[in-house]
Amino acid sequence: MSILAANSHIVYREVILRDPQNQFSGGGSCLIWSKSHGFGVDGRRGGEWRKMKKRDLRVEAFWSDTTRPNVIEMQPIKDCDQLDQVLAQAQELHQSIIIDWMANWCRKCIYLKPKLEKLAAEYDTKIKFYTVDVNNVPQALVKRGNITKMPTIQLWKDGEMKAEVIGGHKAWIVIDEVREMIQKFV
């Protein structure tokens, strides 16, 4: 009998050398617990395979808070009038906004978008996230944002741009810089 748990929320807590019938093998976010031939294989170290002793594995599962979304889709801004409306609404609510200036052909922009949507879920009540595809909007809007490189993530507060991050490097670095920018101004 084998149990395969491909859910990243499954966490193993204790390995106890108790039951000689059980064995464990795992790698990445996959956990396999099986009763079989006397040894398990652990493939987590690249090509280096090694035998594991027979073990009894206790498995615990946890789930994140399902009342809050994990991802919030960024709302698109299509023209200058819509940007004015978004800025006016943010001013009334005394809220900042994040605008992701991107292009559909930009690989880094495409890779960064889901990470920004996860960040939007973290700051759901404090800040709103928007996106502008620079190829599908009037150039007047792109000039208003003073965009020269993509992806560019800007924080707007009180109707004006306060800070920006130009994301030409690794996504996790850009997300950390955006977090710092949010914490500074929000």
Q: Would you kindly provide a written description of the structure presented here, covering whatever features stand out?
A:
The strands form 4 sheets. This protein has a 5-stranded mixed sheet, sandwiched between helices. A 3-stranded antiparallel sheet has the order 1-4-3, with no helix packed on it. Strands 2-7 form a two-stranded antiparallel ribbon. α2 (107-122) crosses α4. It has 186 residues and is an alpha+beta fold. The relative contact order is 0.14. It has helices at 80-92, 107-122, 139-144, 171-185; strands at 2-5, 10-16, 22-27, 30-35, 40-45, 48-52, 56-61, 75-76, 96-102, 127-133, 152-157, 160-166.
Short description:
With 186 residues, the protein is α+β, with helices and mostly antiparallel strands.
Write the SSE topology.
Elements: E1 2-5, E2 10-16, E3 22-27, E4 30-35, E5 40-45, E6 48-52, E7 56-61, E8 75-76, H1 80-92, E9 96-102, H2 107-122, E10 127-133, H3 139-144, E11 152-157, E12 160-166, H4 171-185
Helix pairs in contact: 2-4
Provide key terms for this protein.
single chain; 186 residues; alpha+beta; five-stranded mixed beta sheet; three-stranded antiparallel beta sheet; globular
